[in-house]
Write a structure and sequence with these properties.
This protein is 2% helix and 42% strand. The chain is mainly β. The strands form 8 sheets. Strands 15-14-17-18-19-30-27-26-21-24 form a 10-stranded antiparallel β-sheet. Strands 5-4-3-2-1-16 form a 6-stranded antiparallel β-sheet, with no helix packed on it. Strands 12-9-10-11-8-13 form a 6-stranded antiparallel β-sheet, with helices on one face. A hairpin with a 4-residue loop joins strand 2 and strand 3. The protein is globular.
């Protein structure tokens, strides 16, 4: 493993060694602001905001000066722009659904001055290939949306419609149009529970007051509507504008998420997936991250994923470019990376011990900003004891450089099946402990977890943990042989642990009960 090329500097931030950290929250309609400490001089403010065709919660983040008004957060540095943070699901024949997505088999047909009214809703257009497409929405005076009819519920085999394809009305007249473009059939979900609770108990009111607490819980539950059921509803009610969230619509599966916003820019997502109708497959992104904002605009961007072997991507693009990737040794992320590649067990050091965290760090001559996504090593379906079961794909490398870590794959899920996935997302200050590649801590379920990753040799290094962990017992969830933990099984009264690293690489993950 190569040592980091950044100039590491700074001191342990005293703010993290104080009393138990708190967050401050403010509700603004359906959106919330969550403030916590980032460094000695700055706080981080995470904004959970409703966006997209499903009106689901996504997020953005700012760094602000300590002492500044929470309401003036937009005057700070927007380190993450957001807009695509709620995980979506790869669902076989249905494409990508849930989160911000709806059926991508929908098409918008532009026919300027088409003169159509709601009376045509539910009408069936036939393609030259003999496939049926139902008029679902009138967008405006120049455009409307159609969607193919599905054959078998759960396994619909939707037909595709492309630019230039002929379309005919029921009476045989050919539709005259200007263009056909891809779109999504929003909304594709219906929300059944949506509550913000301070410390998991007290409802957060939209009254302009800032409220302090240990954490903010957001309980968010939604159903993924079967696109073929929605098409059938519109067909059975011709000439009427139907409710795309009609409670009578059949659903594929439901997603229950308990977001827990915590100090130090952390948030866990405790998710339960309940299958309501049999279908071909479900691949779950328990957490994801839109690569945008100043975190993505720094001159240097490092990407660290433990437990992977070095590998070379297949050729991509007209130039057939390949990329030699060593994520465990820290990969320098190119400004542009036109790839579409699934990292699977084949790229893992141990096919039964898969990566559990995905870390990016950006800066110039020193590391400035960090983001970590990951899955629990002791709770839910990614627990280490499960040996990577139901998790064939580990990560999706894509040209947008969004972060797509996979946590679960269910093949042929049946009605009644249920899974739990515990994920986390955490912004962090790389200068809090400059000898570490990443230093994370937050609470997962009923335990605190500390992650420490190093890419340098260290001898008798003292790590200062949050004060509230002092005197508590811990267990080692996992550790490389190259890291020696010289502390006993109890955090010292000074909230410190002592360790050494050889071979220029090592990590340890602690569970503190």
């Amino acid at each position: 493993m190569r040592p980091t090329i950044f100039l590491l500097m700074g001191v342990v931030m005293a703010v993290f060694a104080g009393d138990h950290e708190k967050i401050t929250v403010l509700r603004q309609g359906r959106d919330v602001l969550v403030r916590s400490a980032f460094s000695e001089r700055q706080d981080i403010i995470i904004r959970s905001v409703r966006s997209g065709g499903n009106e689901h919660p996504n997020e953005a983040a700012w760094l602000v000066s300590k002492g500044s008004s929470l309401k003036d957060y937009e005057q700070g540095e927007k380190i993450h722009s957001g807009a695509d943070e709620l995980p979506a699901f790869f669902t076989g024949e249905h494409g990508i659904l849930g989160g911000n997505h709806a059926s991508s088999f929908a098409r918008q047909i532009t026919a300027p001055g088409h003169g159509l009214t709601e009376s045509v809703l539910g009408a069936v257009l036939t393609s030259g290939a003999g496939k049926a497409f139902v008029i679902m929405k009138i967008v405006d005076a120049d455009a409307f949306i159609v969607h193919p009819v599905g054959a078998k519920a759960g396994y619909p085999a939707f037909a595709s419609l492309g630019q230039g394809d002929a379309l005919s009305w029921p009476d045989g007249r050919q539709l005259q149009y200007e263009k056909i473009t891809s779109t999504q059939l929003w909304p594709g979900t219906r929300i059944t529970d949506d509550a913000f609770l301070v410390d998991g108990q007290t409802p957060l009111l939209d009254d302009g007051r800032e409220v302090a607490g240990d954490f903010l819980e957001h309980r968010f539950v939604y159903d993924v509507v079967m696109p073929e059921a929605l098409v059938d509803l519109v067909r059975r009610n011709p000439g009427q504008a139907c409710d795309f969230r009609d409670p009578r619509l059949d659903i594929l599966f439901s997603v229950e998420t308990v977001f827990r916003y915590q100090p130090a820019g952390a948030c866990t997502m405790d998710q339960t997936y309940r299958i309501r109708h049999s279908f071909s497959s479900l691949r779950c992104l328990g957490v994801m991250f839109m690569w945008s904002g100043t975190i993505a605009q720094q001159p240097r961007r490092e990407f660290y994923i433990p437990k992977l072997k070095p590998f070379t991507t297949p050729p991509f693009g007209p130039e057939k470019v390949t990329y030699d990737c060593d994520f465990a040794g820290i990969y320098d992320l190119p400004a542009a990376m036109p790839v579409s590649f699934y990292i699977t067990r084949e790229q893992c050091l141990d096919p039964h011990d898969l990566p559990d965290r995905f870390v990016r760090i950006s800066g110039d001559h020193q590391r400035r900003l960090g983001i970590a996504l990951g899955y629990s090593l002791f709770a839910g379906c990614t627990a280490k004891a499960n040996r990577g079961a139901e998790r064939e794909a580990v990560y999706y490398l894509y040209s947008s450089q969004k972060m797509y870590p996979f946590g679960l794959q269910m093949n042929a899920p049946a009605a009644g099946d249920e899974r739990r996935l515990l994920a986390f997302r955490q912004y962090f200050n790389p200068q809090r402990e400059p000898d570490a590649t990443s230093f994370l801590h937050h609470r997962q379920a009923d335990a605190d977890v500390v992650y420490l990753d190093f890419h340098k040799n260290l001898s008798d290094k003292t790590i200062v943990l949050p004060r509230h962990l002092a005197g508590r017992r811990f267990t080692i969830l996992e550790k490389t042989p190259s890291l020696t933990l010289k502390s006993e099984d109890v955090i010292s009264p000074a909230a410190t642990i002592l360790l050494s690293v050889t071979g220029n690489y090592g990590y340890v993950v602690l569970k503190i009960d």
